[in-house]
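re: that chain from earlier
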Amino acid sequence: MPESETYPDLIAVIGPTASGKTRLAVALAQEIGGEIISADSRQVFRGMDIGSGKDLHEYGQVPYHLIDILDAGGEFSVFEFQRRFLGAFAEIAARRAVPIMCGGSGMYLDAVLRGYRMVEVPHNESLRAELAAKSDSELVKELCRLRPDQHNSTDLLDRGRTVRAIEIARGEAGNGSAGELLPWLQTSVIGIHWEREVLRQRITDRLKERLEHGLIEEVQRLHDSGMAWERLDYYGLEYRYVGAFLRGDMNKNDMFQRLNSAIHNFAKRQGNWFRRMERHGVAISWIEGGGDQLGQALEIIRRGGIAGKQTAL
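^ sequence. v structure.
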């Protein structure tokens, strides 16, 4: 980092899907000597490139972390993200570079910006046996009771994920330390805002681009490699709807329309989550997506747009 500049311990670039987070994070990293830590629940998996929106071509020579670290088909929890984030953060800080977290996965961002000390929850076979007798709707009701602010809708659509989410929620409640705060760390959180209709068009345009550049082929390749359709559903909207098309459950036009609508709804939920973060004390400095994003972000950072929040070194 330039010797004459002082930056926060952590800069976070957040925003809804298709808002341009990666591009801004890369521009910031190039300007101030930063390295990017992805806060995305799917970009950790190798071979899931287009559907997860890695956009690796945008990084250039900027180092990035928590991307392509696991084989597709596995699981990646918020607890594991927090653990790996802290490791990446320490490495970057040791090199005197600026850590820049970039992502839109609400729970992952919360794990760092609100600094919860999370506990690893093992599988509970007796609980799973108890839950096996419940219907899908009963499981969803139980998870919503345990987590009224549930953000990850995928956990509500896949029975296995719902069971695991209940298991984690009960385990954290029983442990009593899930809400324990970690030590303070200065952060500057920059959010990208677009007018609703503009963002909707950006989402639609990006989906068309991904379909034109191999999204369908990527999903087929993952299935051909041995990943069951049901498992692909686990990884979110793009993989679920394209998988349904490839199985013959819907035609291509229906797949596009339904997937596009689902992504729009997901973006709304992301916005709700960000507002919830603000209500819980995370200071987000919003910039206009249609303006000079880099200039706006640098001005916020240099005038001390810092939210003193928690994480561990």
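The mean pLDDT is 87.
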